[in-house]
Amino acid sequence: MATLAACGENLVVCCGRNLIAIHNNLDREPFVFDCSKAEQKPKESDNKSEDGGSEEKGCDRILAFAFSTSGNLLALTDDNKHLVLFRTNPSWECISTRWVVRKCTSLEFTRAEDLLLVADKSGDVYSFSVSEPEKPGQLKLGHLSMLLGVAVSPDDRYVITADRDEKIRVSLLSLPHNIQSFCLGHCEFVSCLSIPLAYPQWLLSGSGDGTVKLWEYESGRRLQSLDLKEPSVTQASDSDGDKRAAVSRIALSPDCSHVAVLCERVPSVQLFRLEKALEGQLTPCERLTLSHCVWDVTFDPSGRLWVLQESQETPIILYTYTQDCWESCPEDPGLRRILDVLCSHWNSFQDSAGVESCFQHLYKVNFDNMASYLQRKQERIQKLQQKKGKKRAGQLPQSNGASKKKRVSLY
């Protein structure tokens, strides 16, 4: 799925195997990185997994990317297990290419920007040094199920991980085997995490159960839960599992007063106000309805909202908050330049176009074996009754007076 992020003066779009970085203000050529041209792993270990078996080669599709807090660094990982580190200022430059053990799902820089944390599909988190860009990763912690998100507290004290089995774990970053708390309450996989910098004690989480929850993560206490299921989704038949709306993105404005939440396959963006009340308050304020499926959303440093959608004519839309509502800005000169770049690279979006769900394989599969058990039990009872009936019918001719007299004589 195509993804979007804004940091500093750069707006970055990842689609397929390409990363496209566009300057927000200056009319300069975009920086484009093609993962298929990244440095290749040495042949002696190219197709070997950690246990020595052969492993299928990936397709160079970008799986995750992340900016550092300052925006001076960006890291991405792809389907071929590259981990590429870039410097963005004063110009884009590839610092290093390393390799991860397993395909990754989420990346996060520490606040100090000295470490890059990488969560993978096997449930492990590895840390990679930023100051030593050629140094291999070190295993930090592990879950028993696939990891889908990783976050670091603003003071770099905690690492927060979310997995397929509905758990959010809060661990000490320096000693990850020490678990501070669990944030439990989701009914499906936890798909995204976000910590508002203005409220560093809080955590926002989204899930495949269609809810967004607000936590005080150090204690594991849930402060609020909001159900975001769309009416058009809930009206679908219960047997159609593809209609469940997983929360795919939680984006925060720079001042953390606005929160944009996106559910996959839904042509709208739900906006909230985040306020510091006694228990924390996430208040719905507006819904932006679009004519196309939304891929991703992000806020830029100025607090403007960018929406990436599945439309070749208008792949990106810009909104500005004015007079207590969000308004589209189609005439913004920066938007026109970005539209021209994305339209010229539309072929890169083909892998994301028409994709119904990135999370469908993560949902639990419920097996109702009780009905089949009761049916088999009833069939056994009927067969037993039929067998007994046939046996009685076979003994009936022998049930005469002599036999009765013989049975009485036995006593």
TrEMBL record:
<protein>
    <recommendedName>
        <fullName>tRNA (guanine-N(7)-)-methyltransferase non-catalytic subunit WDR4</fullName>
    </recommendedName>
</protein>
<keyword id="KW-0853">WD repeat</keyword>
<keyword id="KW-0677">Repeat</keyword>
<comment type="function">
    <text>Required for the formation of N(7)-methylguanine at position 46 (m7G46) in tRNA. In the complex, it is required to stabilize and induce conformational changes of the catalytic subunit.</text>
</comment>
<dbReference type="Pfam" id="PF00400">
    <property type="entry name" value="WD40"/>
</dbReference>
<dbReference type="InterPro" id="IPR036322">
    <property type="entry name" value="WD40_repeat_dom_sf"/>
</dbReference>
<dbReference type="GO" id="GO:0043527">
    <property type="term" value="C:tRNA methyltransferase complex"/>
</dbReference>
<dbReference type="GO" id="GO:0106004">
    <property type="term" value="P:tRNA (guanine-N7)-methylation"/>
</dbReference>
<keyword id="KW-0819">tRNA processing</keyword>
<dbReference type="GO" id="GO:0005634">
    <property type="term" value="C:nucleus"/>
</dbReference>
<comment type="pathway">
    <text>tRNA modification; N(7)-methylguanine-tRNA biosynthesis.</text>
</comment>
<dbReference type="InterPro" id="IPR001680">
    <property type="entry name" value="WD40_rpt"/>
</dbReference>
<dbReference type="InterPro" id="IPR015943">
    <property type="entry name" value="WD40/YVTN_repeat-like_dom_sf"/>
</dbReference>
<dbReference type="GO" id="GO:0005829">
    <property type="term" value="C:cytosol"/>
</dbReference>
<comment type="similarity">
    <text>Belongs to the WD repeat TRM82 family.</text>
</comment>
<keyword id="KW-0539">Nucleus</keyword>
<dbReference type="InterPro" id="IPR028884">
    <property type="entry name" value="Trm82"/>
</dbReference>
<feature type="repeat" description="WD">
    <location>
        <begin position="203"/>
        <end position="225"/>
    </location>
</feature>
<feature type="region of interest" description="Disordered">
    <location>
        <begin position="384"/>
        <end position="411"/>
    </location>
</feature>
